[in-house]
## 1
Amino acid sequence: SAVISQKPSRDICQRGTSLTIQCQVDSQVTMMFWYRQQPGQSLTLIATANQGSEATYESGFVIDKFPISRPNLTFSTLTVSNMSPEDSSIYLCSVEGDINYEQYFGPGTRLTVT
Amino acid sequence: ELKVEQNPLFLSMQEGKNYTIYCNYSTTSDRLYWYRQDPGKSLESLFVLLSNGAVKQEGRLMASLDTKARLSTLHITAAVHDLSATYFCAVGNFGNEKLTFGTGTRLTIIP
């Protein structure tokens, strides 16, 4: 299995500021995924991050708002830029493990924008 | 566009009863996942189903997959309070690891 850590675990931010969320995995993985879970809702994929290439964004998400870095095979960051209260959500990173196509999720970053 | 629907969205059931959560998806997919989420927590993987007719069981939970009907079920047997949580199904395809999640089923077990 893959062990995933995220920082910060939670934050309260002011409108108009930016927050960078870190995701660290204990093994090398090709792809890392960033999901958003709005309050009381399901998970929506923001983007897929491959090492050495630009992230691939899903419909409704753009790089200027959610820039992603993937400097190596165990680490990625997601920045939530120019935040508004609508960005208040849990942000989770995810990877696929090497056994049986299991997909693992980090503990999440709970973001509140005031 | 792939759509994944679950029903019911909310389920309140008594301890000791059996019930089934349904997950329908709109296009052919290779993999079906079930996750559990407790309030304020991340997702815990329950089952990964990879082929038509696959059935997996863990404790009081059993998941099955019918790829022809594009349907997966999560069956709860003799529910206990500890099973209270939100359950999500998610669908993916080989060669593309991203998942599309269902709407979630919030399950409450009443003593």
## 2
Amino acid sequence: DTEVTQTPKHLVMGMTNKKSLKCEQHMGHRAMYWYKQKAKKPPELMFVYSYEKLSINESVPSRFSPECPNSSLLNLHLHALQPEDSALYLCASSPTGGSPETQYFGPGTRLLVL
Amino acid sequence: GNSVTQMEGPVTLSEEAFLTINCTYTATGYPSLFWYVQYPGEGLQLLLKATKADDKGSNKGFEATYRKETTSFHLEKGSVQVSDSAVYFCALPFSGGYNKLIFGAGTRLAVHP
């Protein structure tokens, strides 16, 4: 099974809402990633978890809060977002987080902030 | 640090035409090189990769050769299909020691019947 799943597929939220994005993989990977992708742009790395510990935060605003409850699950908690945060949020995983490893991406959650 | 430059799109081709998407890189040493593809409404998928100079990556009829002399990793396919319509990203690892990918700007390919 080489699949990374993400839920929900689409999400609309207001600027005062709190919501969460979920990502799951069953490949036994120990590194998981969150990316943000704006329209017609490449993905931009937000966070890296390695062995359930946050190892990289690419200077992401605190209104985005990642969580890794176990090695298969990755969440992204959203609070007080701005309209410019509307984007496709992609989750990825890789075996250990060492470089260079192939990253396996999920289908993404398309987020609209009103 | 490592960087990648990819040809601007969109590229529009007829079915069965030959495809080339140019990618050049700047890097310390000889990093692995990747091509990822993003089909409409989907996430990214690894299309092919090469881990050392002169390696050729291939998958689904696509090929790319790691050429250190020209610091290039151009993507080619001899006969494209409508189903190849997608955005193609060239990528290489970040030079800072963790598994961050540096992506090119992406090239949108549209194939018409």
## 3
Amino acid sequence: QSALTQPPSASGTPGQRVTISCSGSSSNIGSNTVNWFQQLPGTAPRLLIYTNNQRPSGVPDRFSGSKSGTSASLAISGLQSDDEADYYCAAWDDSLTVVFGGGTKLTVL
Amino acid sequence: QLQLQESGPGLVKPSETLSLTCTVSGGSISSSNYYWGWVRQPPGKGLEWIGSIYNSGSTFYNPSLRSRVTIFVDTSKNQFSLKWTSVTAADTAVYYCASGPGSSRPLYWGQGTLVTVSS
């Protein structure tokens, strides 16, 4: 069981806006920043959002992140077929470890 | 832009020790203020953080794996490595090396290497 809780699946049609949630606790999301990763089929994960809402160079502004209390969300607007992937949230935990969410499989219908 | 590449055996017998190495190019481990770490992914499952090491030599490990894992750096070869003792079938996974300004936000990833534990 993962320390961060994500829905196992999400879906949307092209052009739609979808959100993926990530729920944690006071020792991780509640006191540290959240990062999001995208993993396309058969590839290594890619850092998508860091420090709650920052995008690394090259990540489209269709991807955005937010955090409130012990929860965080990833939003994808203008959904495209290329966005079909697994998405993971991660955060530092005060017990000196990194915790990941279980991952959300996004399907573009 | 750093590039990371994992190397190691694809097949390990149960109870043996697994050793994986990550070779870094495009930058120097010793001069980068980055965390150097490992993440694994069992077939069909999610990501699991194994641990990381900072340039100061400080190491951080997943508490559930700590007793069997060691991460260390060889600056002369610009590599960092993972040593995992007493492997079991449950340790079969793709192992990724990764690096970034924080343990929880690796920016650079290797392509991953599949390690199968089987007799």
